[in-house]
């Protein structure tokens, strides 16, 4: 056994663990769906892959000619390079790698594979198997996408067993709480906002727990049940997300909801859903589960994809007087919004700091369910008046050079984005700026929806900063097709460049809208 070759393998293996960080980051951002991860790989092919091939060729040549000392030195230099690159990526990424238990298990599996290959060489240094182990060990640092997929396959049975254990435990907890009322909230858009609004209103009368942040996957629901539900909890508000048919049913099988709110049906995740009909049937898996439990489902009648498909068994809310709960006299501006709803025999006025028609409709749905569950009208009014915008959802805050930021970075639906631009347009007397990379996961409607966003921006904004050289093309086309001064249109390669552009003209009389802050796997 050659000590320098052994050191080279060790350096290469440690370098591999750093090199694979980017792949794990993108795999995580694509929800561990191989198909979505592969789509990112298709759009991210660049000089880095060619460089990896050249580096592997160089190391292989040194190994072939038994130049073990130079190979050892090169492997150490590459380890340092992979380390530096991994640190830089995590610092500059919009959303870095989150070291969840699953990611830790993937790293552990990678380390075990690499240690096994080194051990094979150590015990069989002169045999064919030992030489094969050396070649594979050296290669893995340069084919990290292949290694990532292999690790996913290796750990998948373990992940399924772990997930099932936690799911069964969560179901046992709920089985001991027949007194607990469970409310499911789903929709293509607006579900997170509606969840938090509903939780705030219900908390005026009940002890309420909701899934935190944007937790809306089976394991997010399970974690909430296992760690946040207390004996005194009376209502559990559970956000339910979906990317494929059957996902909401999977959530409902865990949570078993008694009431439901379906906020919208629209062209979200069409790359996995394939059609609006599939989106509708998936979202209404919540209604099926609620019906089995003898409960009521509230639906947003302003969502055309919903109102055109449902019958009379639902409670409908929105802005049409024919609906069970109708918002009227809507107005909004710098200080927030005002609207009126008929509750029982009374017309009740509400005020809120939330902005945008879609936020008001979400609020109407939450009010409808809270009123049905017995929360008193004055308590509802107080709760609505005290609402704060959900983080990154039309959230107003001070910004660069004294300007005003309207942070709508988590909004990623076509209608919501258009409404956010209209809200920006209502800030009379101020310079209005939008910074956006556009919308994703809309299938064959992606160009159409981004073109519409560009048209709305041209109508309402003084300056437009688009992010992503290729991604911004539909919006740029729309702006150029509009009566807009293209000298005020900027296209940035990334968000840092966009901020440099914005900072050059921002002042205390500027309002800027951040619309849909996409993670790195979409910026190209």
Quick structural summary:
The protein is an alpha/beta fold and 524 residues long. It contains 21 helices and 15 strands.
Question: What does this 3D model show about the protein?
Answer:
With 524 residues, this protein is an alpha/beta fold. The protein folds into three domains: 3-158, no CATH class; 177-385, Mur-like, catalytic domain (UDP-N-acetylmuramoyl-L-alanine:D-glutamate ligase), CATH 3.40.1190.10; 395-522, Protein-Tyrosine Phosphatase, Chain A (Alpha-Beta Complex). The protein is 52% helix and 15% strand. The protein has helices spanning 3-19, 21-29, 34-43, 47-64, 68-92, 101-123, 128-140, 144-175, 191-202, 218-228, 247-255, 270-273, 276-283, 285-292, 304-307, 357-372, 377-385, 414-425, 446-460, 473-480, 495-503, and strands at residues 181-186, 208-210, 235-239, 259-262, 296-300, 315-318, 325-333, 336-343, 346-352, 395-398, 404-408, 431-436, 463-467, 489-492, 510-515. Helix 1 runs parallel beside helix 7, helix 18 packs parallel to helix 19 and helix 19 (446-460) crosses helix 20 (473-480).
């Amino acid at each position: 056994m050659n000590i320098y070759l052994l050191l080279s393998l060790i350096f290469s293996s440690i370098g591999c663990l750093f090199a694979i960080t980017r792949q794990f980051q993108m795999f995580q951002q694509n929800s561990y769906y191989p198909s979505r991860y592969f789509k990112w790989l298709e759009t991210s092919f660049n000089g880095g892959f060619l460089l990896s091939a050249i580096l592997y060729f160089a190391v292989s040549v040194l190994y072939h000619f038994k130049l073990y000392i130079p190979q050892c030195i090169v492997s150490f230099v590459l380890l340092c390079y992979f380390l530096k690159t991994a640190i830089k990526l995590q610092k500059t990424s919009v959303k870095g790698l989150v070291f969840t238990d699953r990611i830790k298990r993937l790293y552990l599996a990678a380390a075990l594979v690499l240690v096994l290959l080194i051990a094979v060489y150590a015990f069989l240094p002169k045999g064919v198997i030992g030489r094969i182990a050396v070649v594979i060990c050296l290669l893995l640092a340069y084919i990290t996408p292949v290694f990532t997929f292999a690790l996913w396959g290796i750990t998948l049975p373990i992940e399924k067993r772990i997930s099932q254990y936690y799911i069964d435990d969560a179901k046992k907890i709920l089985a001991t709480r027949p007194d607990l009322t469970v409310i499911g909230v789903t929709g293509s858009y607006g579900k997170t906002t509606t969840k938090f609004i509903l939780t705030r209103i219900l908390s005026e009368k009940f002890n309420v727990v909701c899934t935190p942040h944007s937790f809306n996957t089976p394991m997010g629901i399970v974690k909430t049940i296992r760690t946040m539900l207390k004996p005194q909890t009376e209502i559990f508000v559970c956000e339910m997300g979906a990317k494929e048919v059957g996902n909401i049913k999977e959530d409902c099988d865990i949570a078993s909801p008694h009431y439901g709110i379906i906020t919208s049906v629209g062209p979200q995740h069409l790359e996995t859903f394939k059609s609006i009909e599939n989106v509708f049937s998936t979202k209404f898996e919540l209604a099926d589960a609620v019906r089995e439990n003898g409960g009521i489902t509230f639906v947003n009648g302003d969502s055309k994809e919903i109102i055109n498909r449902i019958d009379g068994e639902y409670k409908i809310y929105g802005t049409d007087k024919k609906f069970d709960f109708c918002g009227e006299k809507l107005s909004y501006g710098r200080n927030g919004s005002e609207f009126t709803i008929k509750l029982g025999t009374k017309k009740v006025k509400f005020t809120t700091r939330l902005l945008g028609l879609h936020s008001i409709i979400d609020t109407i749905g939450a009010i409808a369910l809270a009123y049905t569950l017995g929360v008193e009208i004055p308590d509802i009014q107080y709760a609505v008046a005290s609402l704060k915008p959900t983080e990154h959802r039309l959230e107003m805050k001070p910004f660069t050079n004294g300007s005003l930021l309207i942070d709508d970075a988590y909004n990623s639906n076509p209608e919501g984005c258009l409404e956010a631009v209209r809200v920006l347009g209502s800030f009379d007397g101020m310079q209005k700026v939008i910074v956006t990379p556009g919308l994703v996961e809309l299938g064959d409607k992606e160009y159409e929806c981004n073109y519409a966003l560009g048209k709305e921006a041209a109508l309402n904004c003084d300056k437009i900063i688009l992010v992503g050289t290729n991604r911004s093309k539909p919006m740029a086309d729309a702006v150029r097709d509009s009566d807009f001064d293209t000298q005020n249109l900027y296209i940035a390669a990334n968000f840092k460049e966009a901020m440099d552009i914005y900072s050059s003209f921002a002042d205390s009389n500027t309002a800027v809208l951040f619309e849909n802050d996409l993670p790195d796997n979409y910026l190209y």
